[in-house]
Amino acid sequence: MRPFVHEYRGERLSGVYGEGGGGPGAATAVVLHGAGRSSKERLLPLLGEFTAHGCHALALDFSGHGESSGALRELSLRRRFEQAQAVIDAYVPGDRPLVLVGFSMSGQTVADLTAHYGERVAALGLCAPAVYAGEAWDVPFGDGDGRFSTVIRTPGSWRAAPALDALRAYEGRAVLAVPGTDTVIPAEVTEAVQDALAARARYARLELPRADHHVGAWLRDHPGDRRAFVRTVLTGLGEGG
Questions:
Q1: Buried b vs exposed e over 48-63: b needs ≥16 C-beta within 10 Å?
Q2: Cβ(192)–Cβ(159) below 8 Å
Q3: What is the mean pLDDT of residues 99-123?
Q4: What is the rounded average pLDDT of the residues 97-109?
Q5: How far apart are CA 137 and CA 140, in angstroms?
Q6: Residue 212, CB-side half-sphere exposure with 13 Å CA sphere
Q7: Could you give the CA distance from residue 46 to residue 158 in angstroms, rounded to a whole number?
């Protein structure tokens, strides 16, 4: 994996990029970490699995995470989308298919990117994903006691999430990885994401019965499940996906 730093709107975004053996036109897997203390570091083995299967692979630290600059309290769902888009546009040729993989909060980011890139998105991999009310999209995360937290803690606020509409419209390959125990994402959110993906996508559900919400760490530490996840995501990509 080759490290890089991408300058974007005053932030220095740390990323890594690796080339697979599938040639210049192969899909690029963009793997996005979750919230809190998450970073791209735990995702490196997953990137390696994608390159071993012929894909190119890319990951970044959002601002306020890992080796990137910035304060986490200033980040927002919108800024996450914009930072991911900026890095993709800078490092992935515009004619290359995308495989978008998101953990937890990046379920929302993947949905936003899917709506933006449209038919260029060949496959999705969502791991214990979150989706949020549209009202939360532009609000800085703050310190846990501000408007963002108020919005997302409002019961049922996620039900009209624009992310669900984006996932419902998606027609490519889609895999939902579901841990056996998740104390962060309510089961009804997971089921809503599943229902959205099942509407039009070539959908598969991958159960990880011994994993908890931190699916990125689980896949890092369990090569068999990591390989199964990548193979499931890439199934059928040469058949119109």
A1: bbbbebebbbbbbbbb
A2: yes
A3: 98
A4: 98
A5: 8
A6: 4
A7: 29
Contact residues for 83 (Cβ-Cβ < 8 A; gap 6+):
8, 11, 13, 60, 62, 63
- Work out whether the CA dihedral 169, 59, 95, 226 comes out positive or negative: negative
What values do phi and psi take at 117, rounded to 5?
-90, -15
pTM of the model: 0.96
Per-residue model confidence as pLDDT tens digits over 130-178: 999 999 999 999 987 889 999 999 999 999 999 999 999 999 999 999 9
CA 62 – CA 15 distance, rounded (Å) = 9
Q: How far apart are CA 12 and CA 121, in angstroms?
A: 26
Decide if pLDDT at 31 tops 50: yes
- Distance between CA atoms of residues 107 and 113, nearest Å: 10
Domains of the chain by start residue, with CATH: 2-234 (3.40.50.1820)
The H or E element that residue 174 is part of is strand 173-179
Q: Is the pLDDT of residue 234 over 80?
A: yes
What percent of the chain has pLDDT above 90? 92
| C-alpha distances out from residue 159 to 135, 154, 165, 173, 194, Å | 12, 11, 10, 23, 13
Q: Averaged over 95-108, what is the pLDDT?
A: 98
**Which of 223, 107, 211 has its CA nearest to residue 161?**
107
2: number of Cβ within 10 Å: 8
> What is the number of other CB atoms lying within 10 angstroms of the CB of residue 238?
9
- Amino acid sitting at position 132: Y
